[in-house]
Amino acid sequence: MTTAENRTPSTAPLAGATAVDDADALLALARSAGMLVTLDGQIGREKYQSVAGSLRAFQCFAAALRDALSAGTPR
Question: 27: how many CB neighbours lie within 10 A of its CB?
């Protein structure tokens, strides 16, 4: 097993989501991939958040999202 396979996050945060584009599920997936999610501000009900991380963390996020989509997560 390669290092990349060892570090790929679980798609569990998306398992209970009603849609792949659910913001909370995507943010949870980003966090599990090792990315930093910060709340920059909130105006009314609209939250402004930033997601930052290494290229490796972004690759892990993309791989986990791809796996979730191929597993048939409802859209």
Answer: 16
